[in-house]
UniProtKB/TrEMBL annotation:
<feature type="transmembrane region" description="Helical">
    <location>
        <begin position="61"/>
        <end position="86"/>
    </location>
</feature>
<feature type="transmembrane region" description="Helical">
    <location>
        <begin position="153"/>
        <end position="175"/>
    </location>
</feature>
<feature type="transmembrane region" description="Helical">
    <location>
        <begin position="17"/>
        <end position="40"/>
    </location>
</feature>
<protein>
    <submittedName>
        <fullName>ABC transporter permease subunit</fullName>
    </submittedName>
</protein>
<feature type="transmembrane region" description="Helical">
    <location>
        <begin position="119"/>
        <end position="141"/>
    </location>
</feature>
<keyword id="KW-1133">Transmembrane helix</keyword>
<feature type="transmembrane region" description="Helical">
    <location>
        <begin position="271"/>
        <end position="290"/>
    </location>
</feature>
<dbReference type="Pfam" id="PF12679">
    <property type="entry name" value="ABC2_membrane_2"/>
</dbReference>
<feature type="transmembrane region" description="Helical">
    <location>
        <begin position="181"/>
        <end position="201"/>
    </location>
</feature>
<keyword id="KW-0812">Transmembrane</keyword>
<keyword id="KW-0472">Membrane</keyword>
Length: 295
């Protein structure tokens, strides 16, 4: 299994999708630097009106950091999701079509060992990339504004930010067991898009004043989409943990602050348990299908 994991790392380093991801990440971070700098300069001019020891000064500084971080992680979630999907969507179907599995599986290597080795390889690479992206966004924001300093909040936020990696890879590898390479790529893109759309509907519902009937209908649609694909809901909970929403929301109205990037409904701890079960179920389902797949 360790051999398969190392082989997965080497393969990903050779893949153009990984090179393209790092290239786009560099472009994103450069653009984010200038955006954060612009917003930070505007905040600094605003802060000149307040006494540095006043509560209003701290609130404005906090709001600037929240705005910049929300914007940064909004785009970072897309980059991380697409790396997870497009690194693993062809793992079974693609290698079966190329004859790689037929050459490997007859050797003294169990199907479970191959599948788990691949999964660990993709997940470990994705989590490492998530850590680099997470720290980069925090560092850039700290230079131009301010970031939360609570170590506990930062650790919880990172774990939630990286949790999307094993979840998406589990679903992607499951789909690769019964769909073609192209079909699984389309399926995963549409599935992730549905989850993102559900999150946007939830944000719109919580940010604007709607009639009660319309609000309930939209909330139901958003909830169903989040159940089918919980990636965007994890993002909302991650930001809530990062900003210590329960402690700060009485002082600063974050949803009003971030406008169209509002956090929306914050998932409960029960929903996090659902996400854990969702990941385990899709991982186990993919492993079960692969062990019975006719190669």
């Amino acid at each position: 299994m360790i051999t398969i994991t190392l082989m997965t790392w080497k393969e990903m380093l050779r893949k153009r999708v990984l090179m393209l991801t790092f290239l786009m990440t560099a472009i994103f971070l450069v653009a984010f630097w200038f955006v954060a700098g612009t917003l930070g300069d505007q905040t600094n001019r605003l802060l000149e009106r307040f006494d540095p020891s006043s509560s209003q000064f701290l609130i404005e500084q906090y709001q600037a950091g929240v705005t910049i971080l929300t914007l940064g992680f909004f785009f970072a979630s897309f980059v991380l999701a697409f790396l997870s999907i497009f690194s693993s969507f062809s793992v079974v179907a693609g290698e079966a079509e190329q004859g790689v599995l037929q050459a490997l599986i007859p050797r003294p290597l169990s199907r479970a060992g191959w599948y788990m080795g691949r999964w660990i390889g993709y997940v470990s690479m994705g989590v490492l990339y998530a850590a680099i992206l997470f720290v980069s966004i925090l560092v850039i924001t700290q230079i131009h504004a301010a970031v939360p300093r609570d170590i506990g909040a930062l650790v919880r936020a990172f774990l939630l930010f990286a949790a999307v990696v094993p979840m998406l890879i589990s679903v992607s590898m499951l789909g690769s067991c019964f769909l073609s390479t192209l079909g699984n790529g389309v399926f995963m893109t549409m599935l992730f898009g549905a989850g993102w759309l559900g999150g946007m509907i939830g944000k719109i519902t919580s940010s604007f004043r709607l009639e009660e009937i319309a609000a309930k209908q939209l909330a139901t649609i958003a909830g169903l989409m989040s159940i089918v694909m919980p990636a965007d809901s994890l993002q909302s909970r991650m930001l809530a943990e990062l900003f210590s929403l329960q402690e700060m929301n009485e002082l600063v109205q974050l949803n009003r602050l971030t406008g169209t990037l509002a956090l929306g409904p914050i998932p409960s701890n029960t929903f996090l348990w659902y996400v854990a079960g969702y990941t385990l179920l899709t991982f186990g389902g993919g492993l079960w299908l692969f062990r019975r797949k006719d190669l």
